[in-house]
Amino acid sequence: MPHADGSPQLERGKLSRPDLIRDKAYVNGQWIAADGGAVIDVDDPFTGEIIGHAPSLSEQQARSSIDAAERAFPAWAKVLTRNRGAILRRWFDLVIAHQEDLARLITLENGKPLKEARAEVAYGAGFIEFYADEAGRMIGEIIPAPVAGRRLMVEPEPIGVCAAITPWNFPLAMLTRKAAPALAAGCTIIAKPASQTPLSAYALAVLAEEAGVPAGVLNVITGKASMIGKLLTSSPVVRKISFTGSTEIGAQLMEASAPLIKRLSLELGGNAPLLIFDDADLETAVETALVAKFRNSGQSCIAANRIYAQKDICESFLDAFAERVNALAPGDGFDERSDIGPLIDKAGVAKVEEHLDDAVKGGATILAGGKSSGGQLMPPTLVRDVAPDALLTSEETFGPLAGVIPFETMEEGVALANNTPFGLAAYLCSENPATIARAGRDIESGMVGINTGLISTAVVPFGGVKMSGLGREGSSHGLAEYLNLKYLCQAGL
């Protein structure tokens, strides 16, 4: 159905491979419904219509996924690394071959513009590709012995059964970022996707099965989060949990996992600052801010939550940034002209509006956008002269609201950037190598984007410091998160 101007309108939810859409969980190579038929509704954030269902598994069914992973582990761990890599390579090829269908599925359940969904599929596939190659690079060590007649060896071994709990904002990429290194290392895994966006995870399982991932090696389950979380943390079989989500839930998982000393990877809340220094290139600064703030409608843990502009560039930056923000088109993710999709739910809209109201009450001025006109579509919004103690400076907004705060000196800007218990990502814009070196060194963050808002890729370690979590995903460091080191001391030689 075309738009009034003749441009094409994609038919919502139509895939070239309809069988990628599943309404059952994937356990031990089987697709299973919930005991008693209990389901979780999955809706389209733009229309509000129910577009699918996911089974709400019973505790016994969820436990069966742990059993399946436990049974599958010994054989999978013994598969040659090159052969595990070959299976991952086939999985990657299948994901790329079905990129458009997977992107449409993401847009359908998440709401993000289709062009961003396509980018997410490519990004998520990148982890599978990287770890397909990395599987064969797990090497041990022979350490020179301090005494004669001994050989000291170190061998990497897979941890065992792992669990991945993934969020709704990047439903495909967050799963591949966890599952690909786990499988490459020789671990088996139980994945629990967010209830709002389970369809992408099920589609990945379809393609993993076609790629040759054996039964029980990858399991995807849905159900009551508290029940599944308790089951995973209390099971002695599950040796590692990887979680992406709020700091509050991460702390609960950490506490619950402590009695069994589980390995944890936690990518938690962020409060990313963006520092724009006087010596920044204006066009680069505006583009960096636009991407860092408004990608995925601002629903990103590494979104620029606080924008600080030094006094001599602040006015020109605000003028140029406001022009670009006003040009962003909010709308249906299936409309190729849309730049901003709907927020995931009404609670998300309410939080953005709360932060906007608080900023205005504190003296801020709206330069672009404003409140929602209804539904879950929030216009991209820019406010200036935000008070340093405004809500949006201390809480994750998780939506398309940008607040700009002026600062005077580098020392003040860095202090403002560090005035948070979080430290996931940060950004800075400058053309001065000394400014970049000093600010990049002094900012307390696990990742720093310099003159760019796009920092994520499979080949780098992704993760934070302080209350933003622990562990790293991506790169060889991400593979190490799924490995134990075994030291062997051989005497009598």
Automatic annotation (TrEMBL):
<dbReference type="InterPro" id="IPR015590">
    <property type="entry name" value="Aldehyde_DH_dom"/>
</dbReference>
<dbReference type="InterPro" id="IPR016161">
    <property type="entry name" value="Ald_DH/histidinol_DH"/>
</dbReference>
<dbReference type="Pfam" id="PF00171">
    <property type="entry name" value="Aldedh"/>
</dbReference>
<protein>
    <submittedName>
        <fullName>NAD-dependent succinate-semialdehyde dehydrogenase</fullName>
        <ecNumber>1.2.1.-</ecNumber>
    </submittedName>
</protein>
<dbReference type="InterPro" id="IPR016163">
    <property type="entry name" value="Ald_DH_C"/>
</dbReference>
<dbReference type="InterPro" id="IPR029510">
    <property type="entry name" value="Ald_DH_CS_GLU"/>
</dbReference>
<feature type="active site">
    <location>
        <position position="267"/>
    </location>
</feature>
<dbReference type="InterPro" id="IPR016162">
    <property type="entry name" value="Ald_DH_N"/>
</dbReference>
<comment type="similarity">
    <text>Belongs to the aldehyde dehydrogenase family.</text>
</comment>
<dbReference type="InterPro" id="IPR050740">
    <property type="entry name" value="Aldehyde_DH_Superfamily"/>
</dbReference>
<keyword id="KW-0560">Oxidoreductase</keyword>
<dbReference type="InterPro" id="IPR016160">
    <property type="entry name" value="Ald_DH_CS_CYS"/>
</dbReference>
<dbReference type="GO" id="GO:0016491">
    <property type="term" value="F:oxidoreductase activity"/>
</dbReference>
<feature type="domain" description="Aldehyde dehydrogenase">
    <location>
        <begin position="31"/>
        <end position="487"/>
    </location>
</feature>
